[in-house]
TrEMBL record:
The chain crosses the membrane at residues 27-49, 78-102, 114-136, 142-163. It comes from the Bacteria. It comes from Rhodococcus artemisiae. This is Integral membrane protein. Keywords: Membrane, Transmembrane, Transmembrane helix.
């Protein structure tokens, strides 16, 4: 009795194989997600800067509750610009790393596809409370809610495209039929 052999991986270099249109579209969707992430980051930094007095008040109360008075109000107020700058720098660094993973996905790296799938599922699930209106206020909260819903839709589209038949053959280096 004989069994069919499993398909052998294509040994050609990724540059020799054409990138499927689904992967090109998934790349574009991921770039849209990353641009919206930068917009969300800038909104967050803007909100943090505008709410700095409330933040300093809350931090002052927290230090008063613990009984330590090591930091004065002026020290906390002086630290806010540094916090905003660090937030933006670390956020942009993370977006840059994600962009590198998206580029690796385009080059046919299966690990990048799996990493983006996990990140995308996490992003989509974290958007569910926003879909049902939990925690969405007026003003910038509403704008951030709409942006996160659009991000989730783009993410789901990219994940679906990365796992279609032509995409699977591209990532797993299966021979073309």
């Amino acid at each position: 009795m004989s069994f069919p052999l499993p398909p052998t991986p294509d040994r050609s270099t990724p540059a020799d194989r054409p990138i499927p249109q689904d992967i090109v579209t998934a790349y574009q969707l991921w770039c849209g997600v990353l641009v919206l992430t930068v917009v969300t980051l800038l909104f967050g930094a803007y909100d943090l800067w505008n709410g700095r007095t409330d933040l300093v008040d809350m931090m002052t109360e927290m230090t008063a509750d613990t009984g330590t008075q090591e930091l004065s109000r002026s020290d906390l107020d002086a630290a806010i610009p540094l916090v905003v700058i660090l937030t933006v720098v670390f956020g942009l660094a993370i977006v840059g790393l994600l962009y590198l993973v998206v580029r690796k996905m385009c080059k046919g790296r299966n690990w990048a596809r799996m990493a983006l799938t996990l990140i995308g599922v996490f992003m989509t699930l974290s958007t569910l409370p926003t879909v049902f209106g939990v925690g969405v206020g007026g003003g910038s909260g509403l704008a951030l809610g709409v942006i996160s819903i659009v991000q989730a839709v783009l993410t789901v589209g990219a994940i679906v495209l990365m796992h279609r038949r032509e995409s699977n053959a591209y990532f797993l280096r299966l021979p073309e039929n």
